[in-house]
Structures are given as C-alpha cells and as structure tokens.
Give the backbone structure.
Amino acid sequence: MRRKVIAGNWKMNMLPNEAIAFIEALAPLVKDTQNEVILCVPYTDLFYSLLTAQGTNIKIGAQNMHFEESGAYTGEVSGKMLKSIGVEYVIIGHSERRQYFAETDETVNKKIKAALRNELKPIVCVGETLEQRESGKTEEIITTQTRLALEGLTQEQLNSVIIAYEPIWAIGTGKTATSEDANNSIKAIRNEIAKLYGNDVADEIIIQYGGSVKSSNAKELFTTSDIDGGLVGGSSLKADEFSKIVNYMN
Ligand code: PGA
C-alpha cells in the first residue's frame, strides 16, 4: 500500500512570524496522522519553519532551486544550500514557474537531478492547460512532461521522487478536476512510469493531485485507486483547514 502524502505549497505567502504560528498551531492537529505532512515554504521561512517543526511529524520543503551547486547566479538558491539547513523536499517545475519564470522540461530535468544529488526529494509538477485539455491532449502532455522530467534517472532514484499532477486550469481557480478525471490522468502517468521503469516502480511511486484541493473534496479525491494525496495551495494557508485535509478520513 502506498502512503498518502499531503503537501502544502504556500507560494509567495507567509512571513516568518506567521510561519512559526502556523506550524505551532498545525502540529497538535496532525500529530496522530499516518499520512506524510509537508509544508513547502518561501526561502525566507525555511530556517524558522525547520526549527519550529523539530520534534513534530511536519516536514519542510522549498518551492524551487537552481540546478548548479554554486556560482555566479544572482538571486538563486542551490540544492546544496537547501540541504545544508536540513530541508528535505523541493517542488520542481510548478506550472507557475513554467509560466512566469521560463522553466522548461530541460531545466526541470536538471533540477531534479541536482535535488537528488543533494539528497533532497523532488515533488515534480506536471499538468495540462485548459486549451490542451479541450483539444483532447491531456494524456499526451502529461506523459511527455513526465518522461522528459525523469530522463536519465535510475530506478533507484525514482524511490525519492514524488509527482504532482496539477491541471493548470484547476490551480487557484476553485475548479477541481473530478476525482474520476484526476484519477485517470494519474493512472496515465503511472502507466508511463511502468513503461519506463517497470511495474514495481510504477506501483510504488507517489503521485499527488493538486488544483483547488480543500477539506470538502479531499476525501473524494484521496480515496480513489491512484491518487496518493495532494499538493495544496490556497487551502494550506490556514492551519485548521489544512489539518482537515491531512485528516481527510476523520
Ligand atoms: P491551489 O494550488 O490549491 O490553490 O489550487 C495548488 C498548487 O498550485 O500547488
């Protein structure tokens, strides 16, 4: 049985004092869960979040990183830097980075390799636009993004990779894919991984759904055959609401 992984993506929200208060409020609400709980926070919150989360079951991730270890890349943060302060996860290839910051399938692939080199676990985002969906290209787009993202990775490295299927039209819009549609897209991604790495790897890999996940739809989404939890944006900004998503079976 695959575990469920619920990750918050705070995006460009939350000051350090808010991050500390959030984690202090969340910790007792999720302490009994069997699910994995991750918060992907802005760089400026990482250190405070790591300290506050110590001794809890909340894990901390970043939202992006550069693929080089160091050098003349003004404004960038490397995987080595994230690892050095104890970060465990990093989101790679979020659609907002692909859309606004020129992230490509090639840089996504390089960043995943750099994350793994630094023993960080990448949460790799794939997903189609509304136009692609309406022209019947969803499966082709998401399987191609998956293949290009994972190019050159070994079977063993796949154990440390999480994939997040996030249809772009569902992000921040309040529109959620139906659980059936989301499950089918995730099955398509799993089949692609089976083709590339075999059934055992495909059966094990965690594939989340993201796009307007909230406490009112989490159970329906996460109890399908193939959705292994969620990457949660807007609903991860309130500890009470996020805890209900983590505890979706209660
Ligand atoms: P949302 O964002 O839950 O606000 O739709 C999800 C994401 O972008 O990861």
